[in-house]
Automatic annotation (TrEMBL):
UniProt domain Histidine kinase/HSP90-like ATPase: residue ranges: 12-118
GO molecular function: ATP binding
Alphabetized Gene3D superfamilies for the sequence: Histidine kinase-like ATPase, C-terminal domain (3.30.565.10)
Lineage: Bacteria, Bacillati, Actinomycetota, Actinomycetes, Streptosporangiales
Bilayer-crossing regions: none
UniProt-recorded name of the protein: ATP-binding protein
Length: 136
């Protein structure tokens, strides 16, 4: 398999104001590829950026940053949200017992339910949480 083709990458302050900025950035990138699941991509991006701002060390630091990277290959969209991780040891987990009617804790549940694949891994600079959406 060939490598994913990077559509774009943006670095943003880890503040709640980054959520609409990230959505606009990714929406504009995706206009060029006409992906059938653009709305799902924007919803899942919103969840991951919000989690980064609320739960990572990036969001706890006044100068904290997050990075969003968007790639596309053979109809599959791949989005990474990169932050400083969590020194407190918090890991991205789908909350147990979450349903579509739950009042909270649905972010990663939505990512799991709507994406064709998702996951996370640690890097030297922190953590990457990613998802993919198949165009098929």
């Amino acid at each position: 398999m060939r490598a994913l083709g990077l559509l774009g990458q943006v670095d943003l302050p880890a503040q709640i104001a980054a959520v609409p900025r990230a959505r606009r950035y990714v929406r504009d990138l995706l206009k060029g590829i006409d992906h059938p699941h653009t709305d799902d991509a924007l919803l899942l991006l919103t969840e991951l950026v919000t989690n980064s701002v609320r739960h990572s060390d990036s969001g706890r630091c006044p100068s904290g940053r997050i990075t969003i990277a968007v790639a596309h290959h053979d109809g599959t969209l791949h989005i990474d949200v990169i932050d400083a991780g969590s020194a407190a040891g918090h890991r991205p987990l789908v909350c147990a017992g979450v349903t579509p009617d739950s009042g909270g804790g649905r972010g990663l549940w939505l990512v799991r339910e709507l994406s064709s694949a998702w996951g996370w891994y640690e890097i030297l600079a922190g953590r990457v949480v990613w998802f993919q959406l198949s165009g098929r």
